[in-house]
Amino acid sequence: MSGFPPRPYSSHMRQPSLATSASSTGQSPALVARVNEKKAELENLRELRDLSSAMASQMEALEQKLATLSGGTEAIALVLANWHNVLRAINMASAKLPKPSAEEMASDDTPLPLPQTLVRIPTEHAPIMQAHADGLAAEEERE
């Protein structure tokens, strides 16, 4: 023969009712069960994909919020770093105040003196403003 081992004939004839039901429906119960199992697995995979997509979008939103928070934290750090200078300036302004006498402290009708109003003058544009003022002064001298 051709080199293949001979088939036992008893396996074909063992379940004639199964062969007839499989030929009438076209599928065996094991195959139907496997198809249903694969359909359930596919549905689970689709749900996993949808949940993963939702989680990815939430993570991107969280990333944007953390970037905003990081920028705000840097701004707060700069403000807090300047507080030392602000307190030092207030201390310097308060040091120039005359000390009230004991009589002034005892009387309730006289208010305590306050330090001079402190004004912040931006200095980042000072060189440009100085150059502009020098140019105007030079023009006035020529006239």
UniProtKB/TrEMBL annotation:
<keyword id="KW-0131">Cell cycle</keyword>
<keyword id="KW-0159">Chromosome partition</keyword>
<feature type="compositionally biased region" description="Polar residues">
    <location>
        <begin position="12"/>
        <end position="28"/>
    </location>
</feature>
<protein>
    <recommendedName>
        <fullName>DASH complex subunit DAD2</fullName>
    </recommendedName>
</protein>
<keyword id="KW-0132">Cell division</keyword>
<keyword id="KW-0539">Nucleus</keyword>
<keyword id="KW-0137">Centromere</keyword>
<dbReference type="GO" id="GO:0051301">
    <property type="term" value="P:cell division"/>
</dbReference>
<dbReference type="GO" id="GO:0008608">
    <property type="term" value="P:attachment of spindle microtubules to kinetochore"/>
</dbReference>
<dbReference type="GO" id="GO:1990023">
    <property type="term" value="C:mitotic spindle midzone"/>
</dbReference>
<keyword id="KW-0158">Chromosome</keyword>
<keyword id="KW-0995">Kinetochore</keyword>
<dbReference type="GO" id="GO:0044732">
    <property type="term" value="C:mitotic spindle pole body"/>
</dbReference>
<dbReference type="GO" id="GO:0042729">
    <property type="term" value="C:DASH complex"/>
</dbReference>
<dbReference type="GO" id="GO:0005874">
    <property type="term" value="C:microtubule"/>
</dbReference>
<keyword id="KW-0493">Microtubule</keyword>
<dbReference type="Pfam" id="PF08654">
    <property type="entry name" value="DASH_Dad2"/>
</dbReference>
<comment type="similarity">
    <text>Belongs to the DASH complex DAD2 family.</text>
</comment>
<keyword id="KW-0963">Cytoplasm</keyword>
<keyword id="KW-0498">Mitosis</keyword>
<keyword id="KW-0206">Cytoskeleton</keyword>
<feature type="region of interest" description="Disordered">
    <location>
        <begin position="1"/>
        <end position="30"/>
    </location>
</feature>
<dbReference type="GO" id="GO:0000278">
    <property type="term" value="P:mitotic cell cycle"/>
</dbReference>
<dbReference type="InterPro" id="IPR013963">
    <property type="entry name" value="DASH_Dad2"/>
</dbReference>
